[in-house]
Design goal:
This protein is an alpha/beta fold and about 220 residues long. Helix content is about 35%, strand content about 25%. The protein is globular. The chain starts with 9 loop residues before the first strand and ends with a helix.
């Protein structure tokens, strides 16, 4: 997988304050951004995920600024590696995501850019919960191999157009996404990538995810 950066896209490390903690993040800024996509990782992943970085690079090429942020601190990640509990703390992840979005909205480089969320695994539930709580601030949501069902009753309160993308071979997650889709009351769609497994490691699978995400954000997020 080629995750090389586009030289026209400025790459910048960030430290995002969220209450008493600070989150490590990476900003990708094209010359004239048309929107901002904030990535919500989950299930033990991080801002260094090659899959999400690949999607972010293609969104950068389409004109979107991207922020890949670790929603857990290094100390919390160390705990989570042993207990695997914080990755399923959807409330905590949603609070961190919303705090990061608010901080970005106040920064000169990203102020005023329409905001979308890209969530993977449990990060998708956090993105949907955060979007439900701030319907005025979030314009679009995309989930990749996500667990939107973990957002629970908040699904019915989401107003941002939401795209759920699942691998065709990821059968249990397809079922959970269909259940979540039925609870959403916003503009919505479910895309199943044929033969793809949970991590979309098959040839062409991640490109299909990135293409669908780009189309969704261009339709609903671009200013």
């Amino acid at each position: 997988m080629n995750v090389a950066s586009n030289p026209a896209v400025e790459q910048q490390p960030l430290r995002i304050p969220v209450g008493p903690a600070a989150l490590d993040a990476d900003l990708g800024m094209p010359p004239e951004p048309i929107g901002l996509v904030l990535f919500a990782h989950g299930s033990g992943s991080s801002r260094l995920s090659p899959r999400n970085r690949h999607v972010a690079r293609l969104l950068n090429e389409a004109g979107f600024a991207t922020v890949l942020a670790d929603l857990l601190t290094p100390a919390e990640e160390s705990i989570d590696e042993r207990t695997r509990e914080l990755r399923f703390d959807i409330e905590l992840l949603a609070q961190r995501l919303a705090a990061a979005a608010a901080w970005l909205a106040a920064q000169q480089e990203t102020r005023g850019l329409p905001l979308g969320y890209f969530g993977a695994s449990t990060g998708a539930a956090a993105a949907l919960l955060a979007a439900a709580r701030r319907p005025d601030a979030v314009r679009a949501v995309v989930s990749r191999g996500g667990r939107p069902d973990l957002a629970g009753a908040a699904l019915a309160r989401v107003r941002a157009p939401t795209l759920l993308i699942v691998g065709g071979a990821d059968v249990p997650v397809i079922t959970l996404n269909r259940q979540a889709l039925a609870q959403l009351r916003c503009e919505k769609d479910l895309v199943i990538v044929p033969d793809a497994t949970h991590l979309f490691e098959e040839p062409g699978a991640l490109e299909a995810v990135a293409a669908r995400a780009r189309e969704w954000f261009l339709q609903h997020l671009a200013q």
